[in-house]
């Protein structure tokens, strides 16, 4: 839209050519915002008396020419010049009104590009600052003092899950698990602890704590202060995360990180490696927002961020009528019996280890040794580090994980989830819950 002015004829001079007539058609052009008109023109034009206001209408007699005479030819219509046009004239460049509009749009485009990431971050900061029911009050849209960037947190969470996974794998392959009993579940099942759990926990905890010292971290295993390790983050963000996720700041005090350094410990000791995962979850005001599920023995990692992006997706179809139900193999409770009562005797029940593995079974995960299911149900008590990452991933992909009564699970406060869980994606989650009245009672037995 730039045009060289050297060969153009000289513009009409109002002193010698007389004022340009301001005809009704022209007046319409002004009020519609004709280039150079009141709505589009710049302050400089108005200061220079050009473009800002319509020029005064000249006094012209009703019929200024005699009867039978032809009206004199109207002087060529030309939109008023804009100040920047005049400013560019010494450079030998003149912009047509259309060129001027394109020039302004280009400028706006550059400004938008520069500020879009920043604005998206500020918007998310404002939206995510909304307190959850019963959660702590967070400053809304205030200056990000003590703020954390969720994109950074996602990058560190992925790194932590991978680094923890390396410990899990190393211990298993070295075959020195140092297996101990750490207690019993409410149902009387033995809870196991291995060197894999502890070493992974140490790596993951100190990496996250070192990168985000102001953030609350809840981990399945006890962190021994006498056994500190410095694990630093070089602040690099993987390319796929950079591509899909915008920087998004939230107040540090609104964040709770949940670490499961080794999910499916029972199966780990049984050498059923396919079930084992390491997981990190980030909750903001109790809502699960970032989930990372890593399989150390196949180096597979799924991550997702609510309203951000993911590297994993839902499958294209699910069987809602006779769903395949994936359940715990070591903490099943009465889930099989009740699932069959609810969905019929033909319902396929898939017993499997690990809450992370069972969430991956609902997704499109091209992994050897990864089974597929339509619904994940757990009826006994379970801890939040076991389920938070899966809940965040499902939520980010449009799925649901709720208690068996259909309540959202809040990832602040206590470690435990009392109401059992049901997880699904691309299904009528509410209808599933309505089919499960008996499971809810079973879970609270
Ligand atoms: N009733 C219960 N009480 C305590 N933890 C339970 C539980 N049921 C399941 N879990 C924990 O939830 C995780 C997934 O369980 P499951 O494999 O049975 O589905 C396991 O975590 P860890 O392996 O991280 O300890 C398991 O210990
Ligand atoms: Mg666990």
UniProtKB/TrEMBL annotation:
Location of the region described as Disordered in the Swiss-Prot/TrEMBL record: 1-80
Biased composition (Low complexity): 15-33
Domain of life: Eukaryota
Residues the record lists as binding Mg(2+) 1: 260, 262-263, 386
Subcellular localization(s) per the UniProt record: Golgi apparatus, trans-Golgi network membrane
Designated name of the protein: Golgi-resident adenosine 3',5'-bisphosphate 3'-phosphatase
Binding annotation for Mg(2+) 2: 220
EC number: 3.1.3.7
Pfam family, one: Inositol_P
A Gene Ontology BP annotation from the UniProt entry: skeletal system development
Keyword hit for Ribosomal protein: no
Record-linked InterPro entries: CysQ/Inositol_MonoPase (IPR050725), Inositol_monophosphatase-like (IPR000760), Inositol_monophosphatase_CS (IPR020550)
Topological type in the membrane: Single-pass type II membrane protein
Protein's UniProt keywords contain Lyase: no
Any single Gene Ontology cellular-component annotation: Golgi apparatus
Classification lineage: Eukaryota, Metazoa, Chordata, Craniata, Vertebrata
Pathway(s): Sulfur metabolism
Function: Exhibits 3'-nucleotidase activity toward adenosine 3',5'-bisphosphate (PAP), namely hydrolyzes adenosine 3',5'-bisphosphate into adenosine 5'-monophosphate (AMP) and a phosphate. May play a role in the formation of skeletal elements derived through endochondral ossification, possibly by clearing adenosine 3',5'-bisphosphate produced by Golgi sulfotransferases during glycosaminoglycan sulfation. Has no activity toward 3'-phosphoadenosine 5'-phosphosulfate (PAPS) or inositol phosphate (IP) substrates including I(1)P, I(1,4)P2, I(1,3,4)P3, I(1,4,5)P3 and I(1,3,4,5)P4.
Transmembrane region(s): 98-115
Principal subcellular localisation of the protein: Golgi
Class of this enzyme: hydrolase
């Amino acid at each position: 839209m730039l045009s060289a002015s050297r060969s153009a004829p000289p513009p009409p001079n109002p002193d010698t050519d007389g004022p340009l007539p301001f005809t009704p058609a022209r007046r319409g052009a002004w009020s519609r915002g004709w280039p150079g008109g009141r709505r589009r023109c710049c302050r400089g034009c108005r200061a220079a008396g050009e473009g800002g206001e319509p020029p005064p209408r000249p006094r012209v007699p009703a019929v200024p020419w005699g009867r039978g005479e032809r009206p004199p030819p109207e002087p060529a219509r030309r939109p008023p010049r804009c100040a920047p046009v005049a400013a560019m004239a010494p450079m030998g460049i003149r912009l047509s009104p259309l060129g001027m509009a394109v020039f302004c749009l280009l400028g706006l485009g550059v400004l938008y590009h520069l500020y879009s990431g920043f604005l998206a971050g500020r918007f998310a900061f404002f939206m995510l600052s909304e307190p959850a029911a019963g959660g702590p009050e967070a400053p809304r849209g205030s200056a990000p003092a003590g703020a954390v960037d969720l994109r950074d947190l996602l990058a560190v969470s992925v790194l932590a899950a991978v680094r923890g996974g390396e410990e899990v794998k190393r211990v298993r392959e070295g075959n020195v698990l140092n297996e101990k009993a750490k207690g019993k579940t409410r149902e009387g099942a033995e809870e196991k602890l291995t060197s894999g759990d502890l070493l992974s926990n140490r790596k993951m905890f100190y990496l996250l704590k070192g990168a985000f010292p102001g953030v609350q971290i809840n981990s399945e295993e006890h962190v021994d202060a006498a056994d500190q390790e410095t694990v630093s983050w070089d602040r690099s963000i993987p390319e796929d995360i950079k591509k899909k996720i915008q920087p998004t700041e939230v107040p540090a005090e609104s964040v709770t990180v949940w670490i499961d350094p080794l999910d499916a410990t029972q199966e780990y000791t049984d050498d059923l490696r396919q079930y084992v995962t390491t997981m990190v979850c980030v909750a903001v005001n109790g809502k699960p927002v970032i989930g990372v599920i890593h399989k150390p023995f196949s180096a597979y990692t799924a991550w997702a961020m609510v309203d951000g992006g993911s590297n994993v997706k839902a499958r294209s179809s699910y069987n809602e009528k006779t769903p395949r139900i994936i359940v715990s193999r070591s903490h099943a409770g009465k889930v099989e019996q009740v699932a069959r009562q609810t969905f019929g005797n033909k319902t396929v029940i898939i017993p499997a280890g690990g809450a992370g593995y069972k969430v991956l079974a609902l997704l499109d995960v091209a992994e050897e040794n990864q089974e597929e299911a339509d619904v994940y149900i757990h009826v006994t008590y379970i801890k939040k580090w076991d389920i938070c990452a899966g809940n965040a991933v499902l939520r980010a992909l449009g799925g649901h994980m709720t208690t068996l009564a259909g309540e959202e699970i809040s990832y602040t406060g206590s470690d435990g989830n009392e109401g059992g869980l049901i997880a699904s994606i691309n299904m009528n989650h509410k209808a599933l819950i309505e089919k499960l009245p008996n499971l809810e009672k079973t879970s609270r037995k």
